[in-house]
Design goal:
single chain; 181 residues; alpha+beta; OB fold (Dihydrolipoamide Acetyltransferase, E2P)
């Protein structure tokens, strides 16, 4: 169902782009290339409305750092409240069945909460399972899909402070050979 809505949204965006940019079939563009940014935004909205998750990479979380801390990237801020998908690794767990975990860019040997603040990675995302479901820990790469939250927040159940969170409704171990992005 979700794939059908996404396909319809992409087809509609393609038709609009042909009307704006023109094609050999339609001749001169009736609207004009100045509407390309508008079209891109409409296509993004159509994909979002269809319920498709936007891919988000660890390199897209922050645009820089200063004495005041990390600066959220424009991309991250534009995805706040929307469905995203990220690929990474679970940090070593604190307990055997998890309703939360830390997603990291690369495998970690130590729990990030047990390291000093000098070792604290800046490319981590706090993941809370939706409806307090649980997931089994794994050392394999995983794919996390859910709703992105941005901004400093204290998790009431754990006391952990996070800047970036995903409320996950799907966590899946990647099969050998699947691309890590």
């Amino acid at each position: 169902m979700r794939a059908t809505r996404a396909l319809r949204a992409v087809c509609a965006a393609l038709l609009v782009s042909l009307l704006i940019l023109g094609s050999p079939f339609f001749g001169e563009p009736p609207l004009g290339p100045s509407l390309v940014p508008v079209l891109a935004d409409l296509a993004a909205q159509a994909v979002h409305a269809a319920g498709e998750a936007e891919p988000l990479k660890f390199s897209e979380l922050y645009s820089g750092a200063s004495v005041f801390g990390l600066t959220f990237s424009d991309r991250l801020l534009s995805l706040a409240g929307r469905r995203v998908v990220m690929v990474g690794f679970m940090a070593p767990p604190i307990k055997p069945d998890l309703d939360f975990f830390v997603l990291t860019k690369s495998p970690m040997a130590l729990c990030p909460f047990c390291a000093t603040d000098a070792d604290w990675p800046d490319d981590i995302v706090f993941v809370r399972m939706k409806d307090r479901r649980t997931v089994r820990p794994t050392e394999k790469p995983i794919r996390v899909e859910g709703t992105l939250e941005v901004g400093s927040k204290v998790d009431q159940a754990t006391g952990f402070v996070s800047l970036v969170r995903i409320i996950a409704d799907e966590v899946r171990v990647l099969e050998p050979g699947e691309v890590l992005e």
